[in-house]
Amino acid sequence: MVKLESYYASRKTARAHAFITKGAGRVRINNIPVEMVQQEVAREVMLGPLEVAGDIRNKIDLSVRVKGGGFMGQSYASAIAISRAMTGWTKTRKEPKDHPLTRTVREDLRKRLNDYDKHLLSGDDRRKEPKKFGGPGARRRKQKSYR
C-alpha cells in the first residue's frame, strides 16, 4: 500500500490539504488534473512551486483537496500546501533507501523552495486586525445615548 503524507495550508478562507507520494508527475486538484483548471492565472500560481522544483516534479504525485474562498484564494492555498508538502517530503528520515531523491538533491530542493516561498509562507499582512478590548462596540456607534 502507498503511504500518503498530508500537509495543510490556508489562505484567507480557503483551506488546502496536499498529499504527496512517489510517482510519475501527476498533479490533481480536487481530483481534476491541474492542466484542466480553467483560470490560467490560478493554474500558474498552483504550478509555481513545481516550476522551482524542476525535474524533481516528474518523480512525485501530488493530490490537493481544497475548499472555501474564491478561486485565487484556493490557488494560493494550494501553492502553499504543495510547497509545504515538497519541503516536508524532503525532510523525511523514514526509509531513506525508498526515497527517490538523494540527500544533496533534497537539501537543494528545500533551499530553493524556502527562497521562493518566503512571501507565501510568512502569512498574510492584509488580514483584518482583531478588535481591541474596551474599544467602541456596535451599540455605542449606532446610538447617541444608551443610558
UniProtKB/TrEMBL annotation:
Write down what this protein is called: 30S ribosomal protein S9
The UniProt keywords, alphabetically, are: Ribonucleoprotein, Ribosomal protein
- What is the scientific name of the source organism? Nitrosotalea sinensis
Q: Does the keyword rRNA-binding apply?
A: no
Q: Where is the composition biased (Basic residues)?
A: 138-147
Going by the entry's taxonomy, the superkingdom of the source organism is recorded as: Archaea
Indicate, by first and last residue, each region the UniProt record lists as having compositional bias (Basic and acidic residues). Answer: 116-132
- Single GO term (MF): structural constituent of ribosome
Quote a single Gene Ontology cellular component term: cytosolic small ribosomal subunit
Q: Which GO terms describe its biological process?
A: maturation of SSU-rRNA from tricistronic rRNA transcript (SSU-rRNA, 5.8S rRNA, LSU-rRNA); translation
Annotated region (Disordered) at 116-147
